[in-house]
Specification:
By secondary structure, the protein is an alpha/beta fold. 38% of the residues lie in helices and 17% in strands. It is globular. The structure holds pyridoxal-5'-phosphate (PLP). Pyridoxal-5'-phosphate binds next to helix 7. One of its GO terms (cellular component) is cytoplasm.
Length: 423
């Protein structure tokens, strides 16, 4: 063992993977992993709460939480113990069978979203899969005469700036040309209308519309919120036209905004909500909730399925996550620390705008320095993200403390200065 090796962080898989420095791992990465993500920023080996450590032993405050996934931070003791004991008891059964955690999680999701009678849940493994189920639901809202297979509702509406995932159906809903163009033709009938424009929405929704897909806050587009008035107008227009209103809360749901759903305050009942990211507290799990009997009945036996979706371990992880959020006052923490962070950010000279709710925060800079800030922040021991050239996104663990938020706020001016000097 070299002297350097002795300092490396130890992990349970070391016996299988061996020990290496970050630089060695990245060299091995580039010759073995597909290049779709570019070069990873760091090789991470261990986490605890809102902190993570890289292969060289450097510590970071994680203000991105695996992109809004690690709701309770890393290695949360309760979530970890529930996942471990479930795996040691019954790990997978297929959907020829069910298990108590699957049923209890479905019931819990219906309860926290105040879903009306007849509402139902389908479990998937990711956000894009939850949206694929939603896309199929929309197609089943065909609007042809009763008992006929004819479909007159061929149009699906999504917004400019929308991100709904990378599989073909979800990609058709996603707006970004660079993501779409290499894979055309995509499933047809999707139109993208201007963001947040009620008149454009009213003009687009008609009796050929199967569904409208909205993110209450567009995360990938830089944390852009839709107003409650917009969501209410969307509910009204879709109800009038017989179209479904489908809310993609993959990023905004499960406490991220200090509420179970970001759309809660708008006071509307959507036809479906998709969830993933934070739902499993770091374990892969996605879900679609269909609201009311009629919408729930659109997908019938045999029309959709999954091998892994809803398995005992994933649903135990989500149940444990929801339980911990509820029993440890996490939603109140999200509201308090989120407000504190936004106030602090707004007071920074180079920051021109602060957006978002709870602990989903976007802020703009007075120059195109966001990517350079990500690098400077890493060097200073903070993980942040730049969804745009002058936009930073924060989506930290929902258990982030005020003290940790203050540590970032104190370091931010120097991070901005370093990024500007590097330009
Ligand atoms: C991340 C995200 C998705 C895709 O989720 P994956 O788990 O990456 O497939 C879909 N919609 C929204 C709003 C997202 O933020």
């Amino acid at each position: 063992m070299t002297a350097n090796e002795a300092e490396l962080v130890e992990t349970p898989a070391d016996a299988i993977t061996g020990h290496s420095t970050g630089a060695d791992w990245l060299a091995r990465y580039s010759s073995s992993l597909m290049g779709v993500f570019g070069t990873p920023q760091r090789v991470l080996v261990r986490g605890a709460g809102s902190l993570v450590w890289d292969a060289d032993g450097k510590e970071y405050l994680d203000l991105l939480g695996g992109i809004a996934v690690n709701a309770l931070g890393h290695a949360h003791p309760f979530v970890t113990s529930v996942i471990s004991s479930q795996l040691a008891t019954l790990g997978h059964v297929s959907n020829f069978f069910t298990s108590p955690t699957q049923i209890a999680l479905a019931e819990k999701l219906l309860a926290i979203t105040k879903a009306p009678a007849g509402s139902k849940v389908f479990f998937a493994n990711s956000g894009t899969e939850a949206n694929e189920a939603a896309f199929k639901l929309a197609r089943r809202n065909g609007g042809g005469p009763a008992g006929s297979e004819s479909v007159k509702r061929t149009k699906i509406i999504a917004l400019e700036g929308a991100f709904h995932g990378r599989t073909m159906g979800a990609l058709a809903l996603t707006a970004k040309e660079a993501y779409r163009a290499p894979f055309e033709p995509l499933p047809g009938g999707v139109v993208h209308i201007p963001f947040g424009d009620v008149e454009a929405l009213r003009a687009a929704v008609d009796d050929t519309t199967a569904a409208v897909f909205l993110e209450p806050i567009q995360g990938e587009a830089g944390v852009r919120p839709l107003s409650a008035e917009y969501l209410q107008a969307a509910r009204e227009a879709t109800t009038q036209a017989g179209a479904l209103l489908i809310l993609d809360e993959v990023q905004t749901g499960i406490g991220r905004t200090g509420k179970w759903l970001a759309s809660e305050d708008a006071g509307i009942v959507p036809d479906a909500v998709t969830l993933a990211k934070g739902l499993g507290g770091g374990f892969p799990v996605g879900a679609i909730i269909t609201f009311g009997e009629a919408t729930s009945a659109l997908l019938t036996a045999g029309q959709h399925g999954t091998t892994f979706g809803g398995n005992p371990v994933a649903t135990a992880a989500a149940l444990a996550t929801l339980h911990a959020i509820e029993s440890q006052g996490v939603l109140a923490n999200v509201l308090a620390v989120g407000a504190h962070l936004r106030d602090g950010l707004a007071a920074v000279d180079a920051v021109t705008e602060v957006r978002g709710e709870g602990l989903l925060i976007g802020f703009d800079l007075d120059a195109d320095v966001a990517p350079a800030m990500v690098t400077a922040a890493l060097d200073a021991g903070f993980i942040i993200n730049s969804p745009g050239p002058r936009t930073i996104r924060l989506a930290p663990p929902l258990i982030l403390t005020t003290e940790q938020a203050d540590r970032f706020l104190a370091a931010l001016p120097e991070i901005i200065k370093t990024a500007k000097d590097a330009q």
